[in-house]
Amino acid sequence: MRYLTALMFLLALAGVARAEVAEVYDFETRAEEQRYRDLIAELRCPKCQNQNIADSNAPISKDMRDQVYRLMREGASDDEIVGDLVDRFGEFVQYKPPVDKRTIVLWAFPAIAVIGGVLIVAGVAMRSRKRDQEEPALSQEEKARVRQMLADKDQQS
Amino acid sequence: MKRVLLFLPLVFAVAVGVFLAAGIGKDPTKLESARIGKPVPDFSLQSLNDPEQLLDASLLKGEVSLLNVWAEWCPACWDEHGYLMQLANEKGVRIIGLNYKDQRETAFRFLGRLGNPYQQIIFDPQGSLGFDLGVYGAPETFVIDAEGVVQYRHVGVVNEQVWEEILLPVINKARGKS
User: Fold this and answer.
1) Could you give the ipTM of this predicted complex?
2) A:B CB pairs within 8 Å
C-alpha cells in the first residue's frame, strides 16, 4: 500500500513536469491541434540536439514553437513552416532530410545494401551449385582410393 | 584476379575507417549557419544606449564588421569579453553588439564591469533578430561583409586561436572583395 501511494505521488509529479513544456495555444479544430503537434514533433531543437522542439525546454525551442503556431495562424502550409525554420537554422532542424542530390546516397543506402547483399548471396549460391554439377566431388578413381583407405583402417582397429 | 578480390574487404574496411576517423573531433553542437551568403535580415530595433534611436540593417553595411551576440546571463559571454575588448582596441575591428534576450540594466552592469568593445549595440529583448539570424545559443559571432551579407558564423567563445585561425582569414577575404 505504501509503495502504491509513493508510486501515485511520483506519477503525479511526472504529470507536472510534462505540463511545463506545453504552452497554451488556442486551436479552432482538433485537426489543427494535431497538425501543430505533428509539426513540432518532427522539428529538431538546434540547442539540445537529440530532442524535438515538442519535448525540449530550451528557450530557442519555445521560440520555434511560437513561430510554428504563428505561421499556422497565418495559413502557411506544412512545407512553408518547415522551410521557414530551415532558412533560419539550417537543415539540421529537420529529422527527415529532403531527398535531393546530396542526400540521395543517404536515402538509397539501405536499398543498395540490401540489394548488394542479396546479389552476393545469390552469386555465392549459384557458383557453388554450378561447381557441384560440373565436377562431382570425387572421381571414380578417388572413390576407390577412399574405399581402400577405409577398409585398411577397419582392418587395423 | 580472384586474389585481388580477396583484398576487397580490407579496402572497404580502410575506406570506412578513414571516413569515420574524419568525423572524430568534430563538435556536433557547432552547426553551420543557414544564413551564410544571405544578407542580414531586415530589422528595426532600439539602440541599447539610446531607446530613441532605431537601428536597422544598414548599420551593418559599408565596412566589414563582426556582429557579436551576447547577453549578461550568458556565462561564456563573460569569458570572451576581454578578448573582444582587445580586438576592438588593439586591432581596430569594428564590432557591433546584439544584446540578446537581456534587460537594459543587466546589460549596462555587464558593460560597466568589463568595458564596451562595441561601436553600436542593438537591443533585442525578444530575441527577434536573433531568431531571424538562427541564433541558438549565445555567444555567437557573425562576420558581415561590406554589403551586409553574412560570411561566417562562429558559435562559442572568441579567443585568440579562433580569431587567428578562423575569423581573421574570413575577414581578410571579405575585405579583399570590397
Assistant:
1) 0.78
2) 34
For residue B133, the distance in angstroms to the closest alpha carbon of chain A comes to 6
Length of chain B as a residue count: 178
Complete domains list, chain B, with CATH: 35-177 (3.40.30.10)
Indicate left, alpha or beta for B164 from its phi (over 0: left) and psi (-120 to 50: alpha): alpha
Please say whether the beta carbons of A60 and A45 come within 8 A: yes
pLDDT by residue, tens only, chain B of 178 residues: 678 888 988 999 999 999 999 888 887 777 878 888 899 999 999 999 999 999 999 999 989 999 999 999 999 999 999 999 999 999 989 999 999 999 999 999 999 999 999 999 999 999 999 999 999 888 999 999 999 999 999 999 999 999 999 999 999 998 886 5
Cis peptide before B169 (omega within 30 of 0): no
The residue of chain A nearest to residue B40, with distances taken between CA atoms, is A88
Chain A environment of B32 (Cβ under 8 Å): 90
